[in-house]
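Board notes (copied after class):
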Amino acid sequence: MNLPRRIARWRGIWKSLVVYRFNAGHRRSLRRFYRRFVVPGETVFDIGAHVGDRTAAFRGAGAGRGVAVEPQPHLASLLRWQFAGRGGAVRVVAKAVGRTPGEVSLRVNTQNPTVASASSGFVDAASAGAAGWEGQIWDETVVVDLTTLDELVAEFGRPAFVKIDVEGFEDEVLAGLSPDNAPDALSFEFVTMHRAPAFRALEEAARLGYTRFDVSLGESQAMVFGDHQTLEEVSAYLRDLPDAANSGDVYCWLPEPRRHG
């Protein structure tokens, strides 16, 4: 890699750290928000861990173990350094997650590593002049190992909660999960400039047995409804949401919690 590209990469990583890891208010807000999902002592999966702000919040909220899954090699190395010496309380998996095991091409934005994506549809939509995405350039492609949620459950046990933030690949992640392995609750990101994966992810959530839903917009760490919505209600909300909302997360709950392990 040439020097300018290397400088751009580390500048992008530093920006992510400042925004997500070094912001004390952001850290406190995440811990408060995720306490409703974390079962004390149980495992939580962070799919698309980025710089580890959610993984750290899960641990701070009482999770017994965090599994941070991040396919970008530089970020995976950073996560290992951040969470070293925690007695195995955080495991880092340097892979992407999808429908089936194998390999996948990951499009990397070196100046903004938070939007790396294995979805060509996501990158194409953003690159076509979507409002709020101007100037974003995916300037590198790397081939990374691909695992599934079922494989992660086989290795680490069924988690209490799974957070999925993988820039338009969320439906593919959920397609690799069996109903018997579904956590009590999970979240997946959506973006308004490319909504199709979110609707497919909702279909996958229904297949897995999720019946109750809510939405959080951006980094608000607040629920839009504050009570559980049906699949049809949350689908209609996402369909009618203005493009200016940009992004958010859909939260999904099973009808009843299960034993973990």
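Comment from the instructor: The first strand starts at residue 43 and ends at 47. The mean pLDDT is 92.
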